[in-house]
Design goal:
Length: 226
Amino acid sequence: MNDFSATWSKSSEMNTSFSASMNSAQVKEHPYRHWLVFDIFPGDVAEKLAGLPFPVPDIGGVSGQRDLHNATRQYFDRDNIEKHTLCKEVAEHFQEKSTIECFQTTFGIDLAGTYLRLEYAQDTDGFWLEPHTDLGVKKFTMLIYLSDGEGHDQLGTDIYSAKDTHVGRSVFQRNAAMVFIPADNTWHGFEKRTIKGVRKSLILNYVTPEWRAREQLSYPDTLITL
């Protein structure tokens, strides 16, 4: 099979898997509307995503906000799209018109005029994240879980009805995700607890043109259009 055929085949598999996962999305209304989706990627793609060779950052005992470690964060940005074929394929998938239309139909959100941002998060023991809403320049959040190490089924995103009121936790399993539309009540975070190995996830956002860190974007010169 030539390179073009291989790329087309993988893209087709990703579209099929993605469409099926969106069609079976589970909506939860408490404490705010959010969704759980499963089997987003073909199994081999999810496994390869979990194995991307990015260095694991040392948080040095400092945590609470991701931007405390901006120097060591990884994105599916121009450099990594060029270096890693998988990053390129995944970014292209989430930039595609068909994917955007599927998101808009499933979650009732208008994503036209936004930019794609994909962060590859690797969290180690000592990590925690204070409750926050994502409200502002993030129009859409999808937290895609990748790792499947010992105890990782207990490492889901923590959910709050208010900044100081913890009410539950999402599932955490490879190739599943939590989705929400940022609003003033979409409180979420990560309560400090033991992490064995590395908790890996792919944080998908569509952000408005006001997003200032352009170097984090997959396609900083290309808006989402329909």
